[in-house]
Amino acid sequence: VLKASQITQRMKNSHDAFIGMYQLTDVKSGYYLSVIDKDIVLIEKEDKSTFFECHVSQDNLYGLKNAKTLKYLSSTIWGPIKAVGESFGKREECHLSLDKENTGIFFLTTNWSYGGWLK
Predict the structure, then answer these.
(1) 100, 93 in Cβ contact below 8 A?
(2) Contacts of 75 (CB under 8 A, 6+ apart)
């Protein structure tokens, strides 16, 4: 209980930090990860919707804010991943795996939804 309390307190005092602007592409098709309305899609040509501000908290939890919609990718209450997050909080936390063999974004489980990889 004490350890859980310490972690919770540390998270409350933790602030996210901007680390850069990124574009994410599908390795096979070369298409760009993009946001159209609230949906995450792959598109052929780059535009402002294919850029994401990357924020980090606790050294390994990330938030991706779309440059066009200014919304974070987040796990919605019913499960789908959408670009609807107003701020970087628990629903917007994800883990980025950026290596040649396993690249992807892991969205954490929240409420009734299930976490999972976006590859």
Answers:
(1) no
(2) 81, 91, 92, 107, 108, 109, 110, 113, 115
pLDDT of residue 1: 47
Q: pLDDT (tens digit, 9 = 90+) per residue, 7-61?
A: 555 555 556 788 899 998 888 899 999 999 999 999 999 999 999 999 888 777 8
Q: Which two tokens mark 35?
A: 């946001």
